[in-house]
Design brief:
This protein is an alpha/beta fold. It is built from twelve helices and twelve strands. The protein is about 35% helix and about 20% strand. α11 crosses α12.
Length: about 325
């Protein structure tokens, strides 16, 4: 990891919030005596024991899954996480890639630092493109294996931090933009608010954050599932599930939960994708019929993103920090 001064200008101790400095032996240390190892360019900045309010809690089962299974690639470079939870057929991948590129419009303004919160290995090319207009991509993840894979793709354009989203090792107002994809709902419910507030804290005034979440009650998806079953039959019954039984803990909160919170920010809903991976895998044929269905769905999503976000399967929360606001 480069020891340039601007790096320590954006880092802080995840436990105390104290600034970090380089030590003579190439580690990071805070004024309050905490020392953090830097191994092969990855700074290990997980917080210490959680304090009394639960802040900084690390979900060990999530970290273990990604270290031992999720971010292990096969001979073709496909990660186990992708094979376990995604529809890897060309039909579905093309649609998801198109949806991912659509989200990239929120990052066109660029800047110095893009925070990729829960980056993993940045598994898709379209996600990599989010950082094109930024000088550095700051990858924060629980998994060292995931960060190492991200480093192979980004090299010196990345900063790699093993960290916890509920106690980010970043200084307040230091990030020009934030992308966070399918991560926060893996955090236990009692700590999710802390993760959202941390993303807001580190966002620079004038910056934009996009958080891709998940819906526990996708009423639009249920209607689309009925339509697909009518059009194409019950494909799920005909296809043996090719995926392992590995499951990650998902603690998905309903839209009402967000509306009841007293957030320091306002957000706008956008739709990442109206349907989930299992819908595409189990309901759509991998031919022109399935492609036509998804093309129509994409057009509907582009025309009514707020509706598709509120009632679809995969909403995105977009928030901006006003330039006049203090971080």
């Amino acid at each position: 990891m480069n020891k340039a001064g601007d790096l320590t200008d954006i880092l802080q101790s995840p436990s105390s919030g104290a600034p970090l400095r380089w030590t003579a032996d190439g580690q990071l240390a805070s004024a309050d005596g905490q020392t953090y190892a830097v191994i092969d360019g990855i700074a290990c900045l997980l917080p210490g024991a959680p304090d009394s309010d639960g802040g900084g809690a690390v979900n060990d089962s999530v970290r273990e899954f990604y270290e031992t299974k999720g971010w292990v690639a096969d001979d073709q470079g496909v990660f186990a996480e992708t094979k376990a939870f995604s529809d890897t057929r060309t039909l579905a991948q093309d649609f998801t890639n198109r949806c991912t590129r659509r989200m990239g419009r929120h990052f066109k303004s660029g800047g110095k630092y893009l925070l990729d919160a829960g980056s993993g290995p940045i598994p898709y090319e379209e996600l990599l493109r989010y950082g094109d207009a930024f000088e550095k991509r700051v990858c924060v993840d629980l998994s060292v294996k995931g960060l190492w894979a991200a480093k192979q793709k980004l090299g010196d354009r990345g900063i790699y931090l093993q960290g916890d989203l509920t106690k980010l090792p970043l200084q307040t107002g230091s990030m020009d933009a934030v992308t966070c994809n399918h991560v926060i709902y893996q955090i236990p419910p009692e700590h999710q608010v802390a993760a959202w507030l941390e993303l807001w804290r580190v966002l620079k005034p004038g910056g934009t954050a996009v958080v891709v979440y998940f819906s526990p009650n996708p009423r639009l998806s249920w209607r689309l599932e009925k339509a697909a079953k009518t059009l194409f039959g019950d494909l799920a019954a005909k296809r043996a599930a090719p995926y392992p039984d590995d499951e990650l803990p998902h603690h998905v909160m309903p839209m009402s939960w967000f509306e009841e919170r007293m957030w320091p920010f306002t957000y706008k809903l956008d739709s990442f994708r109206p349907v989930n991976q299992s819908f595409m895998r189990d309901r759509l044929p991998n031919d022109w019929r399935g492609r036509a269905f998804l093309n129509a769905l994409y057009a509907f999503q582009a025309a009514a993103p707020g509706f598709c976000a509120r009632y679809g399967a995969v909403p995105a929360f977009v928030f901006h920090k006003p330039i006049t606001e203090q971080a």
